[in-house]
Specification:
Helix content is about 25%, strand content about 25%. It is α/β, with parallel strands linked by helices.
Length: about 350
C-alpha cells in the first residue's frame, strides 16, 4: 500500500509499504481522509521531534525512522482482530492517536494518561499513520461515529478534540454562557477552539493577521469579532467590546511572544490564559503582570477522554466542521500542494485533507 514515510528533516517519501498485521484486540481501518497538522510541518522543517531517529527507537513503539505519518484521520472499519466484538466491518470511525505504555491506565478513570512517560502519537512515533491506505489500531483508541457525518469532516475531530480539551482546561467546555473569550491566532486549532467556545455559549473574539482566516472565523460563525492586530490595538478593542472589563479567558494559539503579551493586556484581573501552542523556545514572560492581575496561566496538550464529548458536538450539529476544509489532495501531492501551501502560503488555507487511496477526489 502507499504511505507517506518520514525519513528525516525535509525527507518525506511517498512509497510502497507492507500493511501492518492484524493482531488480537486491534482494528484495521481503511483511511478515508487525513489532515495535515502543524506538528507534521514542524517535523518536516525541524525534525525529528516526535518522530524517532534512525538510531534511537521510540521507547514504547520500538520503531526507528522511517515511520508512517499522519494522526488526524477518519476511515472505515475493514477488519476486526480477535476479541473485538463491539464494532462491525463498515463502521465509520476516527482515532484518538496515542502511543502510551501498556502499564498506564487509559480508562475514563484517569485524566492524565496523556501526560504519561514517553507518550507519543500514532503517525509520529510509529504504529502506522493516517497518511497510508490502511492502518491497524488498538481498539481502545478507535471511536465510532455516525455515518451522517462526512468522513472528510470527521478527519477534523482529532484537532477539534485539542480545542475541546483546551476549553475544558479553562473550565468552560460544558457551559461558557456569559463568558468573553479571546483567541490569539485563527489557525486550525484557534478556529476549532473558537468553535467549541461558541457551542458552549461564549462571546468570542479572535486576533489574526490573515484576512482569509479572520473572514473564515466570521463566516463560519465561530467568532463574533475578528481583529487585525496590525490595524487596531487588540487589548483596547477587547476592553471596548467587553464594556471595559477585558476578556474572562484567553487562548494562545500561535507560540508568538507578542501574542501572549497582548493576551496578558487584554484579559481582566483574575482571568485565565490557556497556552495551546507548542513553543520551541523560552517565553520572555511578564511575571509581574501575572502577579498584579492574578492571572491563572494554564498549559494544555492533546486531549484526554475528550473524543466522546467532541464527537457529540459534531453529531448534534453544535459544531459544523465543513467550513474549515480548504483543500483536498492526493497522497502524491502531499509535499508540493500540502506542505508547501501550509508552510509558504498558510494565510490561504486552514485545513488541507489528504486522500491516501485517491477515492473521493
Amino acid at each position: 500500500m502507499k504511505a507517506a514515510r518520514f525519513y528525516d528533516q525535509k525527507d518525506i517519501r511517498i512509497e510502497e509499504t507492507t500493511p501492518q498485521d492484524l493482531e488480537p484486540g486491534t482494528v484495521r481501518i481503511d483511511v478515508a481522509w487525513c489532515g495535515i497538522c502543524g506538528t507534521d510541518l514542524h517535523e518536516y522543517l525541524d525534525g525529528p521531534i516526535f518522530c524517532p531517529t534512525h538510531d534511537t527507537p521510540h521507547p514504547i513503539s520500538g520503531e526507528t525512522a522511517p515511520v508512517t505519518m499522519g494522526h488526524e484521520f477518519s476511515g472505515v472499519v475493514a477488519e476486526l482482530g480477535e476479541g473485538v466484538d463491539d464494532l462491525e466491518v463498515g463502521d465509520h470511525v476516527v482515532v484518538e492517536p496515542y502511543i502510551i505504555g501498556d502499564d498506564v491506565d487509559t480508562s475514563s478513570n484517569n485524566n492524565s494518561y496523556h501526560l504519561s512517560p514517553n507518550m507519543n502519537f500514532i503517525g509520529l512515533g510509529g504504529r502506522g499513520g493516517g497518511l497510508s491506505e490502511n492502518i491497524v489500531v488498538r481498539r481502545r483508541w478507535v471511536h465510532k461515529i455516525s455515518k451522517d457525518i462526512g468522513l472528510d469532516e470527521a478527519a477534523l475531530i482529532e484537532p477539534l478534540s485539542v480545542g475541546y480539551h483546551a476549553v475544558d482546561r479553562a473550565g468552560l467546555a460544558q457551559d461558557a454562557t456569559g463568558k468573553f473569550a479571546l483567541i490569539g491566532g485563527a489557525g486550525p486549532i484557534g478556529l476549532l477552539t473558537a468553535a467549541v467556545l461558541k457551542a458552549a455559549g461564549a462571546t468570542v473574539v479572535v486576533s489574526e493577521l490573515s484576512s482569509l482566516r479572520r473572514q473564515k472565523a466570521l463566516d463560519s460563525g465561530v467568532a463574533d469579532y475578528a481583529l487585525d492586530p496590525t490595524e487596531v490595538d487588540v487589548s483596547d478593542e477587547v476592553h471596548k467590546i467587553s464594556g471595559g472589563e477585558g476578556a474572562d479567558v484567553a487562548f494562545e494559539c500561535t507560540s508568538v511572544q507578542v501574542v501572549l503579551d497582548t493576551l496578558m493586556d487584554a484579559v481582566k484581573p483574575t482571568a485565565k490564559i490557556v497556552v495551546v501552542s507548542i513553543w520551541g523556545e523560552r517565553s520572555k514572560f511578564d511575571m509581574h503582570k501575572l502577579v498584579m492581575k492574578e492571572i491563572d496561566l494554564r498549559g494544555t496538550i492533546g486531549y484526554v477522554n475528550a473524543h466522546p464529548a467532541t464527537i457529540e458536538l459534531v453529531e448534534s450539529g453544535k459544531v459544523n466542521l465543513k467550513p474549515f476544509i480548504t483543500g483536498k489532495i492526493a497522497l502524491e501531492d502531499l509535499i508540493d500542494e500540502g506542505f508547501d501551501t501550509l508552510i509558504n502560503h498558510n494565510e490561504t488555507a486552514v485545513k488541507i485533507l489528504v486522500s491516501p487511496s485517491g477515492k473521493g477526489l
